[in-house]
Amino acid sequence: MSGARSYHAGVAAEEQVAGHYGRSGREVCARRWRGARGEIDIVARDGDSVIFIEVKQSRTHAEAAEHLTRRQMDRIYGAAEEFLAGEPRGLMTDARFDVALVDAMGRIEILENAFAA
């Protein structure tokens, strides 16, 4: 897949996932949030909790899952710490990390609390 096509496929996947969270009653409060330590694809709120969502798009859900590396997870953790520092409860804010897998057909599979494993 060419770089531009891959980029646009990723943006489209993020749009789909943001819509999925919005329809499920969670407020999407940021997209492509960037801190000094990294970027988070989508940040959503579920009541007082914050959900950090990494979107991975590929031909299959399994292939998409393989694209998440330990290094990326570390960057997402760092960016999440920066984001939470701006919250009223700071790092005491209830938070979780989801991974949203999007396949070539546009089907979405959400792995809730994926970084806990």
From TrEMBL:
It comes from the Bacteria. SUPFAM superfamilies: Restriction endonuclease-like (SSF52980). Gene3D superfamilies: 3.40.1350.10. Signal peptide: none annotated. One of its GO terms (molecular function) is nucleic acid binding. HAMAP family: UPF0102. Belongs to the UPF0102 family. This is UPF0102 protein H7F16_12695. It comes from Paragemmobacter straminiformis.
